[in-house]
Amino acid sequence: MTKSAGTKPTDAPAADVRNSPAPVKTGVDWRTVFAFPNPVNEYAARITAGLVVLLAVATLLTGSGWGLLLIAGGFWLRVLFGPRISPLALLSVKVLAPRLGPAKLVPGPPKRFAQGMGAFVSTTALVLFLAGAAPAAWIVLAVLVAAASLEAFAGFCLGCVIFGLLQRRGLIPEDICEACNNVPLRRS
User: Rounded to the nearest 5°, which phi and psi values hold at 23?
Assistant: First the structure.
């Protein structure tokens, strides 16, 4: 047992840190798990929005709660993991968008914000449906169809515009997306 002045006695000898190996990095790098691409191919985003419109219109026509679940689940997959897991995004990114030619790159953070808005709206519709307020759920889903249609068919991302407004008001820090300061003005 060793004892140094002013310390408690220990049974183990002091370790020699000069010869110890470097710590091994273990665990999951959560930043990569929850990564979202930046920049994003605008054509893939518009195609995904078009697929959301098709799924949402089919859900409205059938009155299916399962459709609401699929729509909300897809938005949550895209907002949390980017296009790596969402079936609609994978179809858009890997199959359909490459057929349109070279990518048109736009900043990723506003697109992620827009996916978050879609997740909120579609989840609201699902909760309303499950609570027995189906007419309210269909109204909320119709709002989602309108916003997704603007993105898909006109190239106008409502979530991106709101992101830009929030950034200009200082509610979203500029360092989140320096290229986003004039998102609503950048149209080509």
Answer: -60, 140
Q: How far apart are CA 88 and CA 71, in angstroms?
A: 10
Q: Is 148 in contact with 52 (CB distance < 8 Å)?
A: yes
- Record the pTM: 0.77
Residues 87-129 have pLDDT tens digits of: 998 889 999 999 998 989 888 899 999 999 999 999 999 999 9
Residue 148 CA to its chain's centroid (Å): 15
Residues in contact with 161: Cβ distance below 8 Å, sequence separation at least 6, in sequence order:
183, 184
- Three-state secondary structure call for residue 63: coil
Q: Which two tokens stand for residue 60?
A: 């409205």
Q: Which amino acid is at 67?
A: G
Return the DSSP state at 100: G
Upper half-sphere CA count for residue 100 (Cβ side, 13 Å) = 15
How far from each other are the two terminal CA atoms of the chain, in whole angstroms?
A: 77
Q: Tokens in use for 112?
A: 């992620």
Query: φ and ψ at 179, to 5 degrees?
Result: -80, 0
C-alpha 115/C-alpha 48 separation (Å) is: 11
